[in-house]
Fold Protein phosphatase 1, regulatory subunit 42.
Amino acid sequence: MVRLTIDLIEKSKSYFKKKRGLSFPKYLKTLTHLHFFSKNIDDIGDVSMCTNLTVLYLYDNKITNICNLDFASKLTHLFLQDNNISSLGNLQNLKRLSNLYLGGNRITLVEGLEELHELTELHLEDQRLASGEKLLFDPRTLLSLAESLCVLNINNNNVDDIRNLSVLKKLRHFSAADNKLHSIGELEAVCSLWPELLQMDLNGNPVCKKLKYRDRLTVSCKKLETLDGKEIKEVTRQFLNNWKAAKDAKRKGIVTQIPSGSLIALPLDSKSLTFVSYYINLIIIDHITI
Protein backbone atom coordinates (compact mmCIF):
# COMPACT_ATOMS: atom_id res chain seq x y z
CA MET A 1 0.00 0.00 0.00
CA VAL A 2 1.36 3.39 -1.03
CA ARG A 3 -0.14 6.47 0.57
CA LEU A 4 0.44 10.09 -0.37
CA THR A 5 1.75 11.66 2.85
CA ILE A 6 4.14 14.33 4.05
CA ASP A 7 6.74 11.59 4.55
CA LEU A 8 6.42 10.54 0.91
CA ILE A 9 6.94 14.14 -0.19
CA GLU A 10 10.02 14.43 2.01
CA LYS A 11 11.52 11.35 0.39
CA SER A 12 10.94 12.59 -3.14
CA LYS A 13 13.83 13.78 -5.27
CA SER A 14 12.17 17.12 -5.92
CA TYR A 15 12.40 18.04 -2.26
CA PHE A 16 16.12 17.39 -2.04
CA LYS A 17 16.70 19.41 -5.21
CA LYS A 18 14.74 22.43 -4.09
CA LYS A 19 15.00 22.68 -0.32
CA ARG A 20 18.23 24.79 -0.37
CA GLY A 21 18.40 25.38 3.34
CA LEU A 22 14.65 25.68 3.91
CA SER A 23 13.20 23.75 6.80
CA PHE A 24 10.84 21.08 5.59
CA PRO A 25 7.68 22.72 7.04
CA LYS A 26 8.56 26.00 5.30
CA TYR A 27 9.26 24.16 2.07
CA LEU A 28 5.82 22.54 2.18
CA LYS A 29 4.21 25.96 2.40
CA THR A 30 6.05 27.07 -0.76
CA LEU A 31 4.76 24.13 -2.80
CA THR A 32 2.27 25.01 -5.53
CA HIS A 33 2.61 21.84 -7.65
CA LEU A 34 2.83 18.22 -6.51
CA HIS A 35 3.87 15.55 -9.03
CA PHE A 36 3.01 12.05 -7.81
CA PHE A 37 1.76 10.32 -10.94
CA SER A 38 2.53 6.67 -11.72
CA LYS A 39 3.61 5.90 -8.15
CA ASN A 40 1.18 3.07 -7.31
CA ILE A 41 -0.55 5.38 -4.82
CA ASP A 42 -3.87 3.95 -3.62
CA ASP A 43 -4.77 6.47 -0.94
CA ILE A 44 -4.48 10.21 -0.32
CA GLY A 45 -3.27 10.87 3.21
CA ASP A 46 -2.76 14.07 5.18
CA VAL A 47 -0.84 16.62 3.12
CA SER A 48 -2.61 19.62 4.61
CA MET A 49 0.68 21.41 5.32
CA CYS A 50 0.84 22.16 1.56
CA THR A 51 -1.42 25.16 2.04
CA ASN A 52 -0.52 26.87 -1.26
CA LEU A 53 -1.10 23.88 -3.50
CA THR A 54 -2.63 24.86 -6.85
CA VAL A 55 -1.90 21.86 -9.12
CA LEU A 56 -1.95 18.20 -8.07
CA TYR A 57 -0.84 15.40 -10.42
CA LEU A 58 -2.08 11.99 -9.25
CA TYR A 59 -2.89 10.30 -12.55
CA ASP A 60 -1.99 6.69 -13.34
CA ASN A 61 -2.23 5.43 -9.77
CA LYS A 62 -4.59 3.09 -7.88
CA ILE A 63 -6.68 5.62 -5.98
CA THR A 64 -10.24 4.50 -5.20
CA ASN A 65 -11.53 7.46 -3.18
CA ILE A 66 -11.01 11.22 -3.38
CA CYS A 67 -10.31 12.32 0.17
CA ASN A 68 -8.27 14.60 2.43
CA LEU A 69 -8.27 17.52 0.01
CA ASP A 70 -10.47 19.85 2.05
CA PHE A 71 -7.45 21.99 2.92
CA ALA A 72 -6.64 22.74 -0.76
CA SER A 73 -8.76 25.86 -1.16
CA LYS A 74 -6.31 27.25 -3.74
CA LEU A 75 -6.29 24.16 -5.96
CA THR A 76 -7.12 24.96 -9.59
CA HIS A 77 -6.05 21.79 -11.47
CA LEU A 78 -6.60 18.22 -10.30
CA PHE A 79 -5.33 15.30 -12.41
CA LEU A 80 -6.88 11.99 -11.33
CA GLN A 81 -7.23 10.14 -14.63
CA ASP A 82 -6.46 6.42 -14.87
CA ASN A 83 -7.20 5.48 -11.28
CA ASN A 84 -9.94 3.29 -9.75
CA ILE A 85 -12.35 6.02 -8.68
CA SER A 86 -16.00 4.94 -8.85
CA SER A 87 -17.75 7.86 -7.15
CA LEU A 88 -17.19 11.56 -6.78
CA GLY A 89 -17.15 13.21 -3.40
CA ASN A 90 -15.22 15.40 -0.98
CA LEU A 91 -14.62 18.07 -3.60
CA GLN A 92 -16.95 20.71 -2.19
CA ASN A 93 -14.18 22.79 -0.58
CA LEU A 94 -12.19 23.15 -3.82
CA LYS A 95 -13.90 26.43 -4.64
CA ARG A 96 -11.22 27.56 -7.11
CA LEU A 97 -10.97 24.32 -9.05
CA SER A 98 -11.10 25.09 -12.77
CA ASN A 99 -9.80 21.89 -14.42
CA LEU A 100 -10.81 18.39 -13.30
CA TYR A 101 -9.41 15.33 -15.09
CA LEU A 102 -11.15 12.03 -14.31
CA GLY A 103 -10.82 10.01 -17.52
CA GLY A 104 -10.13 6.29 -17.34
CA ASN A 105 -11.80 5.63 -13.97
CA ARG A 106 -14.96 3.70 -13.02
CA ILE A 107 -17.44 6.55 -12.66
CA THR A 108 -21.05 5.91 -13.68
CA LEU A 109 -22.73 8.97 -12.11
CA VAL A 110 -21.31 12.49 -12.21
CA GLU A 111 -22.47 14.16 -9.02
CA GLY A 112 -21.23 16.14 -6.03
CA LEU A 113 -19.82 19.05 -8.03
CA GLU A 114 -22.46 21.57 -6.99
CA GLU A 115 -20.00 23.84 -5.17
CA LEU A 116 -17.45 24.03 -7.98
CA HIS A 117 -18.70 27.26 -9.49
CA GLU A 118 -15.37 28.05 -11.20
CA LEU A 119 -15.02 24.71 -12.97
CA THR A 120 -14.36 25.36 -16.67
CA GLU A 121 -13.04 21.96 -17.85
CA LEU A 122 -14.36 18.51 -17.00
CA HIS A 123 -12.76 15.43 -18.57
CA LEU A 124 -14.58 12.11 -18.11
CA GLU A 125 -13.56 10.09 -21.15
CA ASP A 126 -13.12 6.30 -21.27
CA GLN A 127 -14.73 5.24 -18.00
CA ARG A 128 -14.29 1.53 -17.37
CA LEU A 129 -17.98 0.66 -17.28
CA ALA A 130 -19.64 -2.68 -16.69
CA SER A 131 -21.67 -4.21 -19.49
CA GLY A 132 -24.89 -2.27 -20.00
CA GLU A 133 -23.79 0.76 -17.99
CA LYS A 134 -23.49 4.30 -19.31
CA LEU A 135 -22.26 7.59 -17.92
CA LEU A 136 -25.03 9.62 -16.26
CA PHE A 137 -25.20 13.15 -14.82
CA ASP A 138 -26.98 14.39 -11.71
CA PRO A 139 -29.22 17.30 -12.83
CA ARG A 140 -28.14 19.33 -9.78
CA THR A 141 -24.51 19.09 -10.85
CA LEU A 142 -25.35 20.15 -14.39
CA LEU A 143 -27.33 23.17 -13.20
CA SER A 144 -24.48 24.23 -10.93
CA LEU A 145 -22.02 24.08 -13.85
CA ALA A 146 -24.29 25.85 -16.34
CA GLU A 147 -22.59 29.24 -16.00
CA SER A 148 -18.98 28.07 -15.86
CA LEU A 149 -18.27 24.86 -17.80
CA CYS A 150 -16.59 25.53 -21.17
CA VAL A 151 -15.00 22.15 -21.97
CA LEU A 152 -16.65 18.75 -21.55
CA ASN A 153 -15.16 15.43 -22.67
CA ILE A 154 -17.37 12.32 -22.38
CA ASN A 155 -15.79 10.18 -25.12
CA ASN A 156 -16.46 6.44 -25.11
CA ASN A 157 -18.98 6.16 -22.27
CA ASN A 158 -22.01 4.48 -23.92
CA VAL A 159 -23.90 7.79 -23.87
CA ASP A 160 -27.06 7.68 -25.99
CA ASP A 161 -28.84 10.89 -24.92
CA ILE A 162 -27.41 14.35 -24.27
CA ARG A 163 -30.59 16.36 -23.83
CA ASN A 164 -29.85 16.93 -20.14
CA LEU A 165 -26.59 18.65 -21.13
CA SER A 166 -28.45 21.45 -22.87
CA VAL A 167 -28.26 23.59 -19.70
CA LEU A 168 -24.50 24.01 -20.20
CA LYS A 169 -24.94 27.24 -22.13
CA LYS A 170 -21.28 28.35 -21.82
CA LEU A 171 -19.94 25.22 -23.51
CA ARG A 172 -17.26 25.92 -26.14
CA HIS A 173 -15.63 22.52 -26.68
CA PHE A 174 -17.68 19.31 -26.56
CA SER A 175 -16.28 15.81 -27.16
CA ALA A 176 -18.60 12.82 -27.22
CA ALA A 177 -16.85 10.54 -29.71
CA ASP A 178 -17.39 6.77 -29.71
CA ASN A 179 -20.74 6.82 -27.95
CA LYS A 180 -24.24 5.74 -29.04
CA LEU A 181 -25.82 9.02 -30.15
CA HIS A 182 -28.23 8.38 -33.01
CA SER A 183 -30.78 11.23 -33.18
CA ILE A 184 -29.84 14.15 -35.43
CA GLY A 185 -32.93 16.03 -34.27
CA GLU A 186 -31.85 15.72 -30.66
CA LEU A 187 -28.40 17.03 -31.50
CA GLU A 188 -29.80 19.99 -33.42
CA ALA A 189 -32.05 20.91 -30.51
CA VAL A 190 -29.25 20.71 -27.94
CA CYS A 191 -26.66 22.51 -30.05
CA SER A 192 -29.05 25.37 -30.69
CA LEU A 193 -28.90 26.00 -26.92
CA TRP A 194 -25.09 26.17 -26.89
CA PRO A 195 -24.50 29.62 -28.46
CA GLU A 196 -20.76 29.65 -27.69
CA LEU A 197 -19.89 26.21 -29.09
CA LEU A 198 -16.72 26.31 -31.23
CA GLN A 199 -15.52 22.69 -31.43
CA MET A 200 -17.41 19.42 -31.36
CA ASP A 201 -16.28 15.84 -31.89
CA LEU A 202 -18.91 13.14 -32.44
CA ASN A 203 -16.80 10.68 -34.43
CA GLY A 204 -17.83 7.06 -34.01
CA ASN A 205 -21.49 7.71 -33.19
CA PRO A 206 -24.31 6.22 -35.32
CA VAL A 207 -25.63 9.74 -35.95
CA CYS A 208 -22.58 10.54 -38.07
CA LYS A 209 -24.04 8.31 -40.81
CA LYS A 210 -27.32 10.22 -40.99
CA LEU A 211 -28.16 12.04 -44.22
CA LYS A 212 -26.94 15.65 -44.17
CA TYR A 213 -25.51 15.18 -40.64
CA ARG A 214 -22.70 17.67 -41.10
CA ASP A 215 -24.82 20.24 -42.95
CA ARG A 216 -27.57 20.19 -40.36
CA LEU A 217 -25.22 20.64 -37.41
CA THR A 218 -23.38 23.43 -39.23
CA VAL A 219 -26.68 25.31 -39.46
CA SER A 220 -27.70 24.55 -35.86
CA CYS A 221 -24.37 25.54 -34.29
CA LYS A 222 -24.03 29.19 -35.21
CA LYS A 223 -20.38 29.61 -34.13
CA LEU A 224 -19.06 26.09 -34.69
CA GLU A 225 -15.57 26.19 -36.23
CA THR A 226 -14.61 22.51 -36.15
CA LEU A 227 -16.79 19.39 -36.38
CA ASP A 228 -15.20 15.95 -36.00
CA GLY A 229 -11.77 17.43 -36.58
CA LYS A 230 -12.70 19.17 -39.84
CA GLU A 231 -12.92 22.92 -40.22
CA ILE A 232 -16.22 24.55 -41.12
CA LYS A 233 -15.58 27.38 -43.54
CA GLU A 234 -17.63 30.51 -43.24
CA VAL A 235 -18.57 30.43 -46.94
CA THR A 236 -20.02 26.95 -46.40
CA ARG A 237 -21.99 28.07 -43.37
CA GLN A 238 -23.39 31.08 -45.24
CA PHE A 239 -24.42 28.94 -48.20
CA LEU A 240 -26.19 26.42 -45.95
CA ASN A 241 -27.92 29.16 -43.96
CA ASN A 242 -29.18 30.80 -47.16
CA TRP A 243 -30.26 27.47 -48.54
CA LYS A 244 -32.22 26.65 -45.39
CA ALA A 245 -33.83 30.09 -45.41
CA ALA A 246 -34.97 29.55 -48.98
CA LYS A 247 -36.38 26.11 -48.19
CA ASP A 248 -38.21 27.49 -45.16
CA ALA A 249 -39.57 30.33 -47.24
CA LYS A 250 -40.80 27.92 -49.88
CA ARG A 251 -42.61 25.83 -47.28
CA LYS A 252 -44.37 28.95 -46.00
CA GLY A 253 -45.60 29.80 -49.48
CA ILE A 254 -43.27 32.71 -50.27
CA VAL A 255 -42.00 31.00 -53.45
CA THR A 256 -43.42 28.17 -55.55
CA GLN A 257 -42.71 26.43 -58.84
CA ILE A 258 -44.93 26.33 -61.91
CA PRO A 259 -44.90 23.19 -64.12
CA SER A 260 -42.20 24.61 -66.42
CA GLY A 261 -39.81 24.71 -63.44
CA SER A 262 -39.43 28.50 -63.27
CA LEU A 263 -40.08 30.34 -60.04
CA ILE A 264 -42.93 32.72 -59.31
CA ALA A 265 -43.83 34.67 -56.22
CA LEU A 266 -47.11 34.13 -54.46
CA PRO A 267 -48.91 37.11 -52.88
CA LEU A 268 -46.66 38.48 -50.15
CA ASP A 269 -47.00 40.92 -47.31
CA SER A 270 -44.83 44.03 -47.25
CA LYS A 271 -42.30 42.47 -44.87
CA SER A 272 -41.61 39.61 -47.28
CA LEU A 273 -41.26 41.73 -50.42
CA THR A 274 -37.70 42.72 -49.60
CA PHE A 275 -36.64 39.08 -49.84
CA VAL A 276 -38.32 38.19 -53.13
CA SER A 277 -35.44 39.27 -55.36
CA TYR A 278 -33.09 36.95 -53.48
CA TYR A 279 -35.36 33.92 -53.38
CA ILE A 280 -36.40 33.98 -57.03
CA ASN A 281 -32.75 33.90 -58.06
CA LEU A 282 -31.77 31.04 -55.75
CA ILE A 283 -31.75 27.54 -57.27
CA ILE A 284 -33.69 25.20 -55.02
CA ILE A 285 -33.03 21.50 -55.27
CA ASP A 286 -36.09 19.78 -53.86
CA HIS A 287 -34.55 16.44 -52.94
CA ILE A 288 -31.92 17.98 -50.63
CA THR A 289 -33.29 18.90 -47.23
CA ILE A 290 -31.49 20.71 -44.39
Q: What stands out?
A: Helices lie at 6-11, 13-18, 24-30, 139-145, 184-191, 213-220, 234-251, 270-279. The two ends are 58 Å apart (CA to CA).
